[in-house]
Amino acid sequence: MSFELVRGMNDILPEDVGWWRLIERAIRDVARRYNYREIRFPIVEHTDLFTRGIGEGTEVVTKQMFTFPDQKGRSLTLRPEGTASAARAYLSHGLQANAPFQKWFYLGPMFRYEKPQKGRHRQFHQYGVEALGSLNPSLDVEVIAFAWTLMDGLGLGGLSLRLNSIGCSNDRDSYHEVLRAHFADAIDSMCSDCRRRYDENPLRILDCKEAGCRPHIETAPGAAEHLCDECVEHFDDVKSLLDHLGLAYEIDPHLVRGLDYYTRTVFELISADLGAQDSLLGGGRYDGLVESVGGPPTPGVGFAGGTDRLVLVLQERDAPIQPDRLDLFLASIGDEGRRLVFELAEQLRRAGLSVELDHRARGLRKQLTLANQLEARYLVVIGEDESVSGAGKLKEMDSGEELDVELTAATLVAAVKQGGGTK
């Protein structure tokens, strides 16, 4: 019996892992520069964390979560996103009292029951940052600048922001009524999701992509037109700081993001180089999230992006990533040669070199073929004569040049590093 991949799950093969490592290194480098520390959340959380944090009426909660009971009947969910877990971790470890200002980044798999397509899987990978404990507009802009620096460093050009403010909870309540009044005459002709959202949360109607609904959405009043004085001031400060940094943006009055915890600033970072599918990542403020999951009022802001899609974007734009080259291949002839090769390989690996040998007891010709396939930088062949004398020849594979060497770990390490260092 053979097993196929579970639908929506995906293997990341060794030849593709280099792209993932490239992105992860870039995120860690930018995080270091902005002083964001890595946090790692559990994959499984209590379901209530997401229903209360994300919102019971959101599509993520109603349609996409992988939820199941444990052995004691408690409802658990594979995490569909990272921000709710960040809020839970903030409270679980008492940081609201002991260290209320935190700046984190994370990387890892998330799970949503969606229709699988290119760049979108049911197990997908996400990167993100979360900054908790300050309402200052400078933190909104720092998070945006982090995202911009990351994408720019990965070589993605034509960057700009879609920017909006959806205000505080009081603003949203009044904006809901404005939206209901706008959609009242058309709602019966709109899709079933929009009709449900009309009563539950009319803000979600603005997310609808159905062609029959779009004309009504495009004429809807914008959220930023219905902000209280405090939220207007906050949004003006965000725009002023973006202008000061020279970060281009456009106001999108219908940008609301897809989760209920968002407040005030919301944004998407886009690239003009990507055509219609131009969004790279998105985020915003979530000043009520920590309170909604049982904590004190705590402001927060962050963003998240899909690693899977970012890998596809980079693969389509750049030459393939060259894998790390093998430092040294040790070929053997006869039993004595195999014993010495095995012992020497272990010593060299402990000294920091990447080393491979043949584990299938094959002839020399096939071993040399394997060394070429692995693109080894250097080759040593060890047979009975080399085992007795303790000396052999180190061959540089690219040039074909050979060097007489003692077959000791110290000598071989020095010779390989002198020839260009480990790569």
Q: Could you say which overall geometry the principal axes of the C-alpha atoms support?
A: elongated
**CATH class wording of the largest domain:** Alpha Beta
Q: Strand count, sense and closure of the main sheet?
A: 8 strands, mixed
What is the CA-based Rg, rounded?
28 Å
What structural class results from the helix and strand content? Answer: alpha+beta
Mean pLDDT across residues? 90
CATH architecture of the largest domain: 2-Layer Sandwich
Q: Assign a percent range to the helix content.
A: 25-40%
Oligomer classification: single chain
CATH level-4 homologous superfamily of the largest domain: Bira Bifunctional Protein, Domain 2
Enumerate the strands of the largest sheet in spatial order, edge to edge or round the barrel.
1-5-6-11-10-9-7-8
Structure description:
- The protein has 423 residues and is an alpha+beta fold.
- It has two domains: 14-168 and 228-317, 2-Layer Sandwich (BirA Bifunctional Protein, domain 2), CATH 3.30.930.10; 328-416, 3-Layer(aba) Sandwich (Rossmann fold).
- Helices cover 40% and strands 21% of the residues.
- The chain contains 16 helices and 16 strands.
- The protein has helices at residues 14-34, 47-53, 59-64, 83-92, 95-98, 137-153, 169-183, 192-200, 214-218, 229-245, 289-292, 307-317, 334-350, 364-373, 384-389, 409-418; strands at residues 37-38, 44-46, 67-69, 75-78, 102-111, 123-132, 159-165, 249-251, 263-271, 279-285, 300-306, 328-332, 355-357, 378-382, 391-396, 402-406.
- The chain has an eight-stranded mixed beta sheet, with helices on both faces. A five-stranded mixed beta sheet has the order 13-12-14-15-16, with helices on both faces. The chain has a three-stranded antiparallel beta sheet with strand order 2-4-3.
- A hairpin with a 5-residue loop joins strand 3 and strand 4 (75-78).
- It is elongated and about 90 Å long.
- It starts with 13 loop residues before the first helix and ends in a 5-residue tail after the last helix.
- The mean pLDDT is 90.
